[in-house]
Amino acid sequence: MLFDERPKENKGDLFDREKEIEEIMNNINRPLILITGVRRIGKTSILKVVLNELKIPHFIIDCRNLPPNYSKGNLYSLFSNAISSKLSTFLEILSKIRGISILGNSIELKWKGKEYVTLSDLFDHLNEKRIIIGIDEAQKLRGPLSKEIKDSIAHAYDYDRNLTFILTGSEVGLLHEFLGIENSESPLYGRYYHEITLERFDKDKSELFLRKGFEELRLNVDENVIHGIIEMFDGIPGWLALAGNQFSNNRDLKRVKNIAINVALNEINNLIEMKNNVSPVVARRYRTVMRCIARGTNSWSKIVNCIQKEEGSTISTSVLDNILNNLKKLSIIDENYEFLDPIYKEASILL
Ligand SMILES: Nc1ncnc2c1ncn2[C@@H]1O[C@H](COP(=O)(O)OP(=O)(O)OP(=O)(O)O)[C@@H](O)[C@H]1O
Ligand SMILES: [Mg+2]
Q1: Structural domain count of the chain
Q2: Contacts from 328-333 at CB under 8 Å and sequence distance 24+?
Q3: Closest atom, ligand 1, to C-alpha of 37
Q4: Res 309: pLDDT
Q5: Which atom of ligand 1 is nearest to the CA of 39?
């Protein structure tokens, strides 16, 4: 079902994207592949579909819920959970590794004590077979322990010819920063990666997507509805799926839009809440900057003025610089102070 809001897993459920899938397949023997693009563009779906199609043993590490200051225990449990879900595929290899215990249908990676396994050890063992390791939302691996994971990927890049890593990231600047390909201090410095950037659907493709989705639901919808949805959601497949799904429930385009805006607002508030844990002043500034930009303030000096008016206080150049750079690295705004996602823009007006 096209309007199913979970990531797609089978090629038959995925609309379009043949070219992108082919490009990944053509590069699958490279050590490191990146799938990037804004939120809801279809990164996880493409990763899953490709892995399903290839029939090469694989597992996916889902970093989405990793806390910013994750512990070694958090990191290793991501790996043990991912591998446990494919236990039968990897059982033979795993049973030979010291530091891994197999308990029923799950595994435990020991990361301290007498017998422990490092991620590099683990990759060296997995290298016995051709294996693809997916890391979804890999920029979440930034943080105090990022060195171990980067060291181990760099080690595998050089020594484990049977392994391919496919990383996805919706916060594209942060993903590049995490890898540090251009940073001489990073273990991955200078390594080549193949990056596939997913673009949004154009108007024709969006229309086809919606028509096909409504057809699957055997729902006759007005032309105005199709065009209304296209106008609102700018070809981002995840929003189109949500809109199709919601419209089929409530038949009210305005309500559909409000639901989407609320979903986005929730995500933005979560982001601001994370900043709030560091400093309430910084959190407030993010809120103000996003609100100013959402109202169409589209140059540095106009943003400074807007903040001064809103908050009744001045903001230093370096603080504003930092906030704007972060919003760019999070793929929320572009170089021209425009929101990348029209629904994020609408939601930010309400901040
Ligand atoms: N090509 C497609 N065909 C059908 N549905 C799609 C397609 N691309 C994305 N979707 C749908 O859009 C939604 C978002 O897709 P997905 O989760 O794969 O995107 P994502 O880029 O990983 O998003 P996020 O950044 O939130 O992790 C899901 O409901 C998915 O089913
Ligand atoms: Mg995803």
Answers
A1: 3
A2: 328/173, 329/171, 329/172, 329/173, 329/174, 329/177, 330/171, 330/173, 330/174, 330/271, 331/38, 331/39, 331/170, 331/171, 331/172, 331/173, 332/290, 333/293
A3: 21
A4: 95
A5: 25
26 and 174 belong to one structural domain: yes
Residues with CB under 6 A from ligand 1: 2, 4-8, 14-17, 37, 39-45, 170, 237-238, 241
**Residue whose CB lies within 8 A of the most ligand 1 atoms, among 9, 11, 36, 45, for a mutation test:** 45
- Quick check: is 12 in a domain? no
The mean pLDDT value for 65-91 works out to: 95
Looking at the fold, whether 109 and 243 belong to one and the same domain comes out as no
Q: What pLDDT shows up at residue 113?
A: 86
**Cα–ligand 2 centroid distance for 318 (angstroms):** 32
The reply to whether the predicted model has a pTM over 0.85 is yes
pLDDT in tens, 198-254: 999 999 999 999 999 999 999 999 999 999 999 999 999 999 999 999 999 999 999
Residue 144 binned pLDDT confidence (cut-offs 50, 70, 90)? confident
Residues with CB under 5 A from ligand 2 (ion): 43-44
Note every long-range contact of 315-318, with CB atoms under 8 Å and residues 24 or more positions apart, other chains counting.
315/285
Give domain status of residue 6, yes or no.
Answer: no
